Amino acid sequence: MFDLTGKAAIVTGAGSGIGAAIAQRFKAAGALVLGADIADVGALVESWGCQFRQTDVSIPEEMAALCQAAVDRFGKLDILVNNAGVASAAPLADADPARSERFWRVHTLGVQSGIKEAGARMKPGSAIVNISSITAVRGFVTWGEYAATKAGIISLTQTAAVEYGPAGIRVNCVAPGIIETPMAMAEAPDMVARNAAVFTQLGRIGRPEELAAAVHFMASDDASYITGQTLLVDGGWSTGPSIKGIELALSTSG
Ligand code: NAP
User: Which domains are assigned to the chain?
Assistant: First the structure.
């Protein structure tokens, strides 16, 4: 089940967190994996038996070179996971055009370039999985600039599913809630864990491996009739207020 034997896959942002979990899981499932990251983390990625190419996904020419490198090294490209991302929070009142543009370049333009360059090289039966965020589908204080570009990824997923469906290429999206990675834990890790405990239905933060499992399914032939969809992997946060959250609100409301 979810066998990836012989499939040639690219995972961006493979040097850390969710991308690292996806690359290792794909490798264990039999895929030929080309990991990419903005920093030179080749030694780490290669230690899992994957290949590596340093790539800045926000530069379209580098995404083109990455997709071509997979074809040159593996003879084909079957799977692309557009996972690389950056994060920082600020209220919209303090929105900064340079920071907003960086989010757009890494997330929206990066995913758009990935779809374009991979789509041009993929054969029928291939799959693209884009990583969005729960912030794309709910309002979250201080996450406006980031969230807008993550919502763009859901939109790109839907358009790409329409445009590449006739070529037999599926395009889906996975939207994480709070996952325990360097990105999520960079600031105030105690508060992050507490938020996850209170706001998710499962009462805890997610693990990168739990994200990788969902991406694995979406990338595999077992998802052969699924395209254009966004799967929220968020411990049920997006479903509605948790019992714990309601109890906390009631206990502090006077
Ligand atoms: P992470 O641990 O910071 O990993 C992200 C990786 O992407 C890092 O290695 C990062 O390198 C790399 N990267 C950043 N900019 C890049 C660029 N321009 N080109 C290539 N690589 C680049 O974060 P993560 O939590 O695993 O995040 C993975 C994805 O999940 C991101 O798209 C993120 O937005 C999304 N997500 C995460 C969470 C969460 O709670 N963790 C929630 C929702 C969505 P540097 O470290 O050098 O910047």
Answer: 8-253 (3.40.50.720)
